[in-house]
Amino acid sequence: MSYRELRDFTEMMRALGFHRLISIENFRTPNFTLVAEILMWLVKRFEPHTDISSDVATESDRVFFIKAVAKFMATEVDVKLNTKHLYQADGYAVKEMLKITAMLHAPIKTKHMALEDRVQEANNKFKFELGSRISDIKAARQLASEVMSKGASLHDLLGQEVKLWEKRTAAIARPLEINKTEKVLTATIREVHESIEKTKDVLSNVMCDETTLDGKIEKKRQELERKQKKLQSLQSVKPVFMDEYEAIEQELKRQYEIFVGKFGNLCYLESQLDEYHRQEKERTENTKKMQHKLRERERDMRRRRRSETDKDDLEDQSEDESEAKSQSGSNSDLEESNF
């Protein structure tokens, strides 16, 4: 439900003369009491003596009220309402009630528009009269001169009425010439006969066309009956190849079942093969990782051995040096004792 529709609904209800003010905020949450009051007021606008109950205390009463209002609007006003949206009593209910209010507000809107058009037309006419006053004065002067000339000529003609009346009376009183009258009547009768003959020819042509069309329609009807009988006979007769067709159809169903089974097995085997390849790939990757770890360990062990051998060599060298020092010391002691 858009804000524009809510605003239009509130403005229409205010223009129609609803007895209380309606705000847009009234329909943010479900408000069944207000919706029921508005619906009852709209129904009264169409039928003041309606017998729809306005009791909406219980759920069943509300359902009965909504159904009664929707039925009344459908039968009397020819407006179809969504009862589910009306029962929600929120913006969707406003959308449904807007259908009724728009119908009631249309004449008022048309009346206002007509009044505005008349006011605008009067203003435009007044402005036009102000702008064309000089031309109107000239036209009035010309009409006045024409009226005077026509009046003078009419006065002259009325003065000649006495003489003209005598001539008119004499012409009326003059006897008719039988020969001329007979010729005129004969020519008129001849024209009438000619028109009658033409009409008869047209009617005869129409009758011939009608007979021709009836014959064509009868032929088409007979052809249609023959086609229908032929169709019925073809439908009732079993074709020669129907047995073979049914046998081939059964064989096709069996082959299809076999195909479905083999296709399922093939898909399963392909999935198993993919799983096997995946496991092999993981196994090779694990083997490579183990080999790499073993190589690293061997390298570490070699490094440790080298470091240990280097330490042993250093220790041996230090021991040799200490022994050499001890021997030289002992030799010096012996020499001193000898002295």
Task: Give keywords.
mainly alpha
What does this structure look like?
With 339 residues, the protein is mainly α. It is built from nine helices and no strands. Helix 1 (3-16) packs across helix 5 (91-131). The longest helix has 97 residues, at 242-338. The radius of gyration is 60 Å and the shape is elongated. The termini are far apart. The model has no long low-confidence stretch (mean pLDDT 79).
Termini gap: 130 Å
The helix tally amounts to: 9
Question: How many extended strands?
Answer: 0
Biggest sheet statistics: none
Order of helices and strands: HHHHHHHHH
Q: Which overall shape is indicated by the principal axes computed on the Cα atoms?
A: elongated
β-strand amount:
under 5%
Ranges where pLDDT stays below 50 over 5 or more residues in a row are: none
Judged by helices, strands and strand pairing, the structural class is: mainly alpha
Determine the mean pLDDT.
Answer: 79
Q: How large is the radius of gyration?
A: 60 Å
| Percent of residues in helices | over 70%
SSE diagram, text form:
Elements: H1 3-16, H2 32-46, H3 59-77, H4 83-88, H5 91-131, H6 133-159, H7 161-173, H8 178-236, H9 242-338
